[in-house]
Amino acid sequence: MLQPFSRFAAPLVLLALAVTTPAVAKDKAPPPRPAQIQELYACRDIADPAGRLACFDREVGELANADQAREIVFTDKETAKKTRRGLFGFSFPKLGGIFGGDEDEIREIDTVIRSVSIDRSGKYTLVMEDDAVWMQIDTTKLPRQPKPGQKIHIKTATMGSYFATIEGGRAIRLKRDR
Length: 178
Known about the structure:
By secondary structure, the protein is of the alpha+beta class. The protein is built from 4 helices and 6 strands; from the N terminus they run ααααββββββ.
């Protein structure tokens, strides 16, 4: 009598975990600001105008020195988005929002094929216009061989792989090589 219950219990537990995991992930605190930025912001709290200006001058100088020594890096949202796009297909640990946060996570891209090669087993290696190299990992045969200049749509699949469709054709499974 317990067997039918246990058959349904495991999927229900997994479903409950899947539903609650995103809620927990959203409650994460943002990464801490660099010390140089915190010290610069602290200057705003100084009541005396001359002391506040001296603090700003000192902290901006420290920030400029840290920037010159490459101890701190500045970026804008558009540059971070381009960086995430360039890294699409590689698996990295969560980097605490270093490239702009998870809300803008890239799940798919559209690009253009620059070159195509086929290995001995008939699988494709595709080089994109941005120098990204993708290798076919399934055995799907395409009715027409991909050609340079064709548009390709690549989207996240499961277990670290990606689905690609070349100009709306049949999907093949790829992984990013470099």
